[in-house]
Amino acid sequence: MKLGRLNHVGVATPSIEKSLELYRTMFGAEPHGAPFDLPAQGVRVCFVDTPNSQIELIEPLGEDSPIAKFLDKNALGGQHHVCFEVPDIHAAKAELEARGVRVLGEPRIGAHGTPVFFVHPKDMGGVLTEIMETPAH
Ligand code: CO
């Protein structure tokens, strides 16, 4: 498996609007398009561009959002995951699983329209890690 670029850093927030205001005020950074809902994943998402990567702002969508528990522990929000690109998502999953790494669920279409999966933080030094097939640029 070849590790590709850092696609984004996921940041959980109780309010995408407030976070966007913070990025605007602090850094003059603008959102990459409008926030959008990913109902299947229970999140609302908005990206902020940086020159070499992106910040993925994630807000809970619905009662049983996977982000809700994180925000219970971190009321301000905070860094939630990192996302690396790989050339072949299924090859990456097979290779990690062959090493005994816990992959959370089957690859599914993520916020960039390409398949993603998550690696259990206990198998990645405490860091929830998203693996994404490199989008066609
Ligand atoms: Co992500």
- Counting DSSP E segments of at least 2 residues, the number of strands comes to 8
Number of helices: 3
Structural class: alpha+beta
How many individual domains?
A: 1
How does CATH name the architecture? Roll
CATH topology: 2,3-Dihydroxybiphenyl 1,2-Dioxygenase, domain 1
List SSEs in N-to-C order: EHEEEHEHEEE
Mean pLDDT: 94
Explain the overall architecture.
- With 137 residues, the protein is α+β, with helices and mostly antiparallel strands.
- The chain has a single domain (6-133), classed as Roll (2,3-Dihydroxybiphenyl 1,2-Dioxygenase, domain 1).
- The chain contains 3 helices and 8 strands; from the N terminus they run βαβββαβαβββ.
- The protein has an 8-stranded mixed sheet with strand order 2-3-4-1-5-8-7-6.
- The longest helix has 12 residues, at 16-27.
- The two termini are 20 Å apart.
- The model has no long low-confidence stretch (mean pLDDT 94).
- Cobalt (II) ion (CO) is lined by residues 8, 10, 56, 81, 83, 130.
Brief sketch in words of this structure:
With 137 residues, the chain is α+β, with helices and mostly antiparallel strands. Helix content is 22%, strand content 36%. A hairpin with a 4-residue loop joins strand 2 and strand 3 (43-49).
Layout: helices, strands, pairs:
Blueprint: E1 6-12, H1 16-27, E2 36-38, E3 43-49, E4 54-60, H2 66-73, E5 78-86, H3 89-98, E6 103-109, E7 115-119, E8 129-133
Bound molecules: cobalt (II) ion.
